[in-house]
Write a structure and sequence with these properties.
By secondary structure, the protein is α/β, with parallel strands linked by helices. It contains 8 helices and 7 strands, in the order βαβαβαβαβαβααβα.
Amino acid sequence: MESIVVFCGSGEGYNELYRETAYQLGKTLAEQNIRVIYGGAKVGLMGALADGVLQHGGKIIGVIPYFLKTKEVAHEGLTELITVETMHDRKLKMSELSDGVITMPGGWGTMEEMFEMLTWGQLGLHTKPIGLLNVNGYYDALKALSDNMVQEGFLNECVNATLLMSDSIEELMEQMTAYVAPPAPKWITEQTT
């Protein structure tokens, strides 16, 4: 993978481990010469991620909507900062620039970004690996929910398996490198994409 988009919170959470892991993820990706795409902010886990990349010689591109840039939350030291009109434009641009996705802890916005990428993958619109960095067991309940979706007949097991998860950066990267997307559903054809 040449570039990975990282979705993560604009807050830091109550446990210092979240911030430390975001910084470490940035450092690891920089050391592996993987370009990072993220939301462009200097605050929260996003800021820690960016600092980890930049302080270890990596490249990081921020994608931020104009209305957030005007609130002075944009990180000033990035390799590149791309300003877009809307949140929808932001997700599309981030997807276009990346070969894979890592989601760290965050709130509604982080979840929405990840779920849209999962949905696009389920529909066969991309074949990128999507990983959850399960810091401090943050995503244990989400894993239980997705398993329940399978058990109750609302999610196919092969689709559920597309969401990779680990509490280790190295292990998650190994899973993502080995990832092979399942075939696109029968109702997706060249005419419908």
